[in-house]
């Protein structure tokens, strides 16, 4: 039987939520579930209504993306988890290609490249992320950069459970903290050199609006994990 994949979409006042849900439901891989966690939205909620019969929908008080992801993971029934931001979208073959890639390698975690698009889904840059030859290069890159785009990740759900929840204390860099923690303690992230996610750049995105807070959080994370990561890389 094919493995089940849970696609988790945290949602907060995002005008692009319908496009994200559509892209998740339109995957060529059939054994999926789409889990939308509404983090206390007051706008654009009506865009979810047409999809309610096809998704798992949860509404909670506003607590940030990490809390929404954590609730989605807790509710997920899939063996694998993908995270999709409500302003981004997947290409139709995303899950099918990435899961096959992981199963061939017996990988617990993987990520891909991505394209940047604008408000009108026009591609601004292709293959925007860094490219890698092996898993050691991925780990080494984290000594300098936040390499992995979280919405390109597909991960064994048991691995996420083993490493605990996304930390809500890191409101803007909870994903960076999770990936660097997993890498520091020996999880290999396998890189698939395909652009299977469309990452949207727009004025309301958290990345654009909260640069200072992100940098401050990253400093704390790096102080905690870089010494452990360095030791882990030496043992590879």
What does this structure look like?
- By secondary structure, this protein is of the alpha/beta class.
- The protein is 36% helix and 22% strand.
- Strands 1, 2, 3, 4, 5, 6, 7, 8 and 9 form a nine-stranded mixed beta sheet that branches.
- The longest helix has 24 residues, at 211-234.
Could you give the topology of this structure?
Layout: E1 5-11, H1 17-25, E2 32-38, E3 56-59, H2 65-75, E4 80-83, E5 89-90, H3 94-105, E6 109-117, E7 123-125, H4 135-141, E8 154-156, H5 157-163, H6 174-184, E9 189-200, H7 206-209, H8 211-234
Parallel strand pairs: 1-2, 1-4, 2-3, 6-9
Antiparallel strand pairs: 4-8, 5-9, 6-7, 6-8
**First-residue to last-residue Cα separation:** 34 Å
Q: Which spans of ≥5 residues are poorly predicted at pLDDT below 50?
A: none
Strand content: 15-25%
Mean pLDDT: 95
Quaternary arrangement of the chains shown? single chain
Give the helix proportion (percent range): 25-40%
* Tally of separate helices: 8
Order of helices and strands: EHEEHEEHEEHEHHEHH
Sheet with the most strands? 9 strands, mixed
């Amino acid at each position: 039987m094919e493995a089940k994949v849970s696609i988790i979409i945290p949602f907060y006042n995002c005008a692009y939520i319908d496009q994200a849900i559509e892209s998740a439901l339109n995957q060529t891989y059939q054994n999926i579930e789409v889990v939308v966690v509404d983090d206390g939205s007051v706008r654009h909620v009506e865009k979810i209504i047409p999809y309610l019969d096809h998704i798992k929908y949860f509404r909670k008080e506003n607590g940030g993306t990490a809390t929404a992801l954590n609730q989605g993971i807790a509710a997920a029934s899939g063996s694998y988890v993908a995270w999709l931001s409500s302003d981004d979208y997947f290409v139709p073959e995303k899950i099918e290609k990435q899961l096959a890639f992981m199963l061939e390698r017996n990988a617990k975690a993987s990520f891909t490249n991505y394209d940047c698009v604008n408000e009108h889904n026009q591609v601004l840059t292709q293959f925007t992320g860094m490219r890698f030859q092996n898993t050691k290069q991925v780990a080494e890159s984290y000594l300098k950069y936040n390499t992995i785009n979280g919405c390109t990740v597909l991960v064994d759900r048991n691995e996420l459970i083993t490493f605990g929840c996304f930390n809500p204390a890191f409101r803007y860099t909870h994903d960076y903290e999770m990936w660097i923690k997993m890498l520091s303690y020996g999880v290999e992230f396998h890189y698939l050199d395909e652009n299977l996610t469309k990452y949207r750049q727009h004025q309301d995105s958290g990345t654009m609006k909260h640069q200072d807070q992100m940098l401050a959080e990253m400093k704390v994370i790096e102080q905690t994990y870089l010494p452990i990561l360095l030791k882990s890389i030496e043992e590879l």
